[in-house]
Every structure is written in C-alpha cells, then in structure tokens.
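Much of our argument rests on the idea that a fold can be written as discrete symbols. This step matters because it turns folding into a mapping between discrete strings. The record that follows shows the chain in one-letter code together with its fold in token form.
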Amino acid sequence: MVVLDATIVNIALPSAQRELGLTNGNRQWVITAYTLAFGGLLLLGGRIADLVGRKRTFVIGLVGFAAASALGGAATGPAMLFGARALQGVFAAVLAPSALSLLTTTFTDGKERARAFGIYGAIAGAGGALGLLLGGILTEYLDWRWCLYVNVPIAVVAVVGALYLLHDAAGHREASLDVPGVVLGCGGLVAVVYALSEAESRGWTSPLVLTLLLGGLVVLGVFTWWQSRARHPLLPLHIVKDRNRGGSMLTMGLATIGMFGMFLFMTYYLQNILGYSPVKTGFAFLPMSLAIIIGSTQISARLLNRVPPRFLMGPGLLLGAAGLFTLTFLGTHSSYAAHLLPGMLLLGLGLGLTFMPVMATATTGVAPQDAGVTSASVNTAQQIGGSVGTALLNTIATTATASFVASHLSRAARTGRLTPQEKTDIVNSGVVHGFTVATGWAALIMLAASATAFVLVNARAPGSAETGRTGPGAASA
C-alpha cells in the first residue's frame, strides 16, 4: 500500500485534474502532499511504534491509511484531495516503519529472516512499477478514484491478518519521546522534502527552494547536535554511526534516486513519445517488476546467509547502472523489445539483488526498543532518495531539452520555413534527448551507490560464525 501509493496516482492524475479542476500549477500537490507528510514524519512514526508497540501502530496505520484513501477517492474538490493525500502520508509514516520493524523482531533465524526480507524487498522494489500497472488498469477501465479506493480492501485483509497472526510486545517504556528532537527532525525533513518537490516546478535557483533547502539542512544539523545530548534521543546516533547501517542507508538513498528518475521518464516516454495507453504503459513495466521479484526472492534470499551483503549490493547496483546506461540510447522511434526491455530487465534484476540485503543489513542487530526508529531511518533514506531523484533528474532533463530544442529550431529556421510536423519532430527529439541525458546521470549515481556498498558495508555473511553472534550490523565505524 505504501509503495503503491507513491506511483499509482501518476497515471490517474490527468483524469483527476480534468474532473476536479486542478490547475497545472497545483496538480503536483497530489504527489507532493503525500511525499511531504510521509518523508517528514517517518522518524516520529518509527519512535511511536517503539513506544506503544509495533502491532498496535501497524493496525492503526492500516485503518487510518484506508480511511484517508476512501476520503481521497470521494474528493469533491482540490483541497479535499490534497488533504486526503497528506493524511495518507501521515498514516504511511506510522505504517511503514512498524511493518519493517515487525519483520526485524519476528524473524531472527537466519534462513527465515533471509526469506522474509527477500519477499519484503521484492514488494518494496516492485511496488512502484506495479502501481503504474494497477493505476493504468483502474483509470482506463473503472475510474481514477479507484486508484485510492483500492487501498480499502487491501487494508481490510491486512488488518484481519494482523489481528490473528502478528505477535508483538506492548511497547518499550524506556523508548521515551524526544519532543525537541521531534520538532527539529520532522521540521528539517519536511523543509528538505518540500524544497526538493518545489524544485521541479520552480527551479533550483528559486529563492523559496534555496531558503527551504538551506534552512532544512541547518535545522537537521541542530537536530544531529541535539541527538548527541538528549537523554532519550529520537534517533540514537549509534544507529547511523554503525558503518554497515549507515552505509546501507546511504546506498538505499542513492539507488532510489536512479529508480524513481527512471519511473518518471519512462512513463512520459512510453505515453507521450511512443503513444502507449495507460494500461499498455503499466504492462510495459511488468517485466521489470518480475525481474525485481526474481532477484530478491530467488537470488538474494538464497545467497544472503552465504555471502557478505556487499557482494550482493555492489554487483546488483552495477547491473542497475548498466541497465540505465542502455536506456541512454533511446530515440523517438525506439522499439520496446529491442531498446527498452533489456535495460529495464537489467535494472530490475539489479534492484532485486540490492534492496533485500540493504534492508536486512540496516535493521540487523538493533535493540528491540530502537527497531521502529531504525526501520524508519531506512524508509527515510528511500523517501529522500526518491524526492531527490525526481527533482534533480527532472531539472536536468528539462534543461537539456530546452537547450536542444532552442538550438535545433534556430538552426532549422535559418535554412528555411519549418512545417508543423518538423517542429513537432524537433520537440519530441528534444524531450527524448533530455530523458537520455538525465538517465545517464542516474546511471552515474547508481555507480556511486555501488561504490558506497563495496567500501562502507563490511559485514560478513549472516550465516558465518562471527555474525551469528553479533549480526551484520555489529561492526561499528
């Protein structure tokens, strides 16, 4: 539900815009309201899970998320839809860390843990692509509102399963709530996520974007200082100072930059350049989703107990970078089978190899009272990476497109009068040029993620004698 809702409304957005009268200026808030609340409140949600119990917050998160989804589906105007999406983000910030920390505390046996995180990693990685497929089907054959209503039956099944199958402690009283840390941490994250989301439309040099970004970073700096002195810190610094946990979180953030950028560009490329319908666009992402699932459940889950995590993360991200690199050769008339599919399969397989060991390594060896906030930190890295990827790569793409179109139109105008078709061809070529330039940068960022995993993550295989006692997260920086 949480990963699905980051992408499922993308394909539904044009229909919602027409029906509710959203403007081009405010339509982005359908996406931003969700990511802003989700990314900004994750640390608080993780600490609440530690305080009152993960099963309880999991169920509360499910019920609240479903109610917010139903409210959004019934929206009668822009404000109601934006508010519902923000409310979804609030409950997602409670739901996501409690779900991951439940896995962390439930599965302690090596083989069971590897299998559980393999399934979780497959869902986390493939959920975005599956959201595009489901969004296309629901929008084309039912109504855009069902992209939100669909969460209600999913939540009902999950709540019933949680009540009957999940077992968890009531909570940890020693995990006190750090109120100044909540204000500083959540405030700083909200400012940074908001700045990154506004950079798409306003540009990176906008005074608002720069003020929010710099102000948010300053507040996060004060938050870090406070965490070193607080009696019960919101985010105990030993969690991120551990080189394996910190390295895994940094790897996750960098990898997500490339993944979210690819989703954005390929969705526009398939629909606006190749003329795919929403459903056909969704199906085009299906092989990548299957590759993520295979890489996570059939390769990573089977090898995690036998090889050090970096030997899954590093090569996986190299595969992902290779997949992105192949997508830099796209043109306005590229075929799906010959030009898109190989790159998407490589990227999917690489991400499948990566997400599962990243999540398992980042959450292993954590004290029970810190499981929720550690899980929230992993989710925060993923969310910030997605926001950075969308804003940064979109800015690179639009800048490259504008430069390409301006120079080619100017050159063509000097040789004679342009026909409307020739202008359209130049604009389409410029759009694809922007996509390929940005995808090239995404490939470089994915290479940086691979280097980060190889250099920082030095945990041994969980099945080895040493890590059997201490866990992958035991080696400190």
Remarks:
- The chain is about 80% helix and 0% strand.
- The chain has one domain: 4-177+234-461+468-474.
